[in-house]
Amino acid sequence: MQQAKQILKTAFGYDSFRTGQEELVSGILAGRDAIGVMPTGAGKSICYQVPAAAMDGITLVVSPLISLMKDQVDALNQTGIPTTFINSTLTAAQLNTRFREIADGKYKLVYVAPERLESERFGRLLGELHIPFVAVDEAHCVSQWGHDFRPSYMSISRVLGLIRPRPVVAAFTATATDKVKEDIVRHLRLQDPVRVTTGYARDNLSLSVLKGADKKAYLADYVRSRPNDCGIVYASTRREVEDICSYLVKLGVRAGRYHAGLDEEERARGQEMFLYDELKIMVATNAFGMGIDKSNVRYVIHYNIPKNVESYYQEAGRAGRDGEPGECILLYAPQDVMTQKFLIEQGEGDEERKTIEYGNLHGMVEYCHTTECLQRYIVRYFGASDGEACGRCSSCTDDREVADVTLDAQKVFSCVARMKQRFGITMTAKVLRGANDAKVRQFGFEQLPTYGALSSRKEKDIVGLINVLVADGYMKLTDSQYPVLTLTMEAKAVLEGKEQVFQRVAPTVRSASREEQLGDESLFEKLRQLRKSFAERERVPPFTIFHDATLRELCVQQPRTESDMLSVKGIGKHKYDKYGRAFLECIEEHAAGR
């Protein structure tokens, strides 16, 4: 571990490991398998990169994300750890050269796409190399219960059998329910692994759900108020991505687009422009997801509801990777749920898979309607203890008076019970509204005592009330294309008069103002320009040189010596030797007023 801590300091510029990192690193270096579930920004990559640098031989990193491979390879080479990748972007000549260099022991880490593991040539290469350690990133892809199942991941355990002696195997993911964790251990055949789950709360993120907004007007106002910030806007379909991007460009915003309908060259060019801050906003489908290792994304806006909580939290987690404040805003509209259901139906999964996806979508809808702390909802969704309310999200900052809606809730629960718990939200709302509807009459529901029980309210408001009651755990929806309402024990307690129900109706959200940034803003801009000049010269993304958070700390500390600068987080000896003197001179000139 002493060597690992030295690598952490000299290569990565950190004095100590973060929560969970040391336990995983020490376990791996002791020869134990491991599974690490750590939220985006918690430092998962350090957990396998440090052991890889400390071990003799080559570490194999399995990752499905071609874009992330390039980013991490660039970043590791900047720290002085020789790294490369094998994926479909390489030409035959490049592949031949890469295989020869790997065989010659030129690299400490080799990133590989899971599909490449099935290549006969790659299998022969594995048999010739000394591979003490294999890290599997985005390990949730091995589970059919996960949100992003990839069949190619099922071959990983077979390929591991080609490596002699058996390597240490470690699996990492940002999000996994208990069921997915057990799938990971079983499918990758982890042997008595070290298990670390560091928690899902992100203290620097502000989560918000905005309902009923004019989405385009809101988006225009938001991005105009943050002209210097980088952000991502996610949309459900390619057509919406094109529409939103065109709208922003017409407003004079430097926006790009990313979806699977674009050719590979255009996607790569757009991604590179975003990484180099030449584009301030990327509008994208979930094809532009986990593989973006850009540290200074200040906000993520979901223009439509995503298909599940796992996808949402991973995408929202693109904000604030540097530890600085980030905003995650979801613009909710009921019709977006229908879009997601259509995409599920058009998908290639079998009926069992679709049932899982419908259940996952219901969890996302509940998130949009809950009146409890949004951070707490997510933490509980993944099976962790509730913890404290975050105090930052749109639920926590809604300061309106809480209303007693027990009577209305009892009417809803009574109606669901009298309809034999066999119908969905829309039909229930029609009965409570007292709608003159053919289907209501077909089932004889106009004869129920609860028919018209909420006739003073609009049908859409009744639907909203029901959704909130589901989100707060009083009812459940079955996992199917046409979900049915069922009552829980909590609802029965309300019907019996043992419990009351309190709610805020349709909370609105205001965009949280950006926290005042620390340090000298003009110096920060000078340091950014200096970083950009190095990045352009070396053709690497700026954040691979120094993160924004490191530049912020330089602005606060304003170091004058090598020793001072090496005390700044994110600056190791290797990077100081390459860039340190130039940055010190920039700080010195600024202090002198030049």
Short summary of the structure?
The protein has 594 residues and is of the alpha/beta class. Strands 3-4-2-5-6-1-7 form a seven-stranded parallel sheet, with helices on both faces. A six-stranded parallel sheet has the order 8-13-12-9-11-10, sandwiched between helices.
Explain this structure to me?
This protein has 594 residues and is of the alpha/beta class. Strands 3-4-2-5-6-1-7 form a 7-stranded parallel beta sheet, sandwiched between helices. Strands 8-13-12-9-11-10 form a 6-stranded parallel beta sheet, sandwiched between helices. Strands 14-17 form a two-stranded antiparallel ribbon. A hairpin with a 7-residue loop joins strand 15 (475-477) and strand 16. Helix 2 packs parallel to helix 3 and helix 21 (521-538) packs across helix 24. The longest helix is centred in the middle third of the chain and has 19 residues, at 351-369. It is globular and about 80 Å long. The two termini are 45 Å apart. It catalyses: Couples ATP hydrolysis with the unwinding of duplex DNA by translocating in the 3'-5' direction.
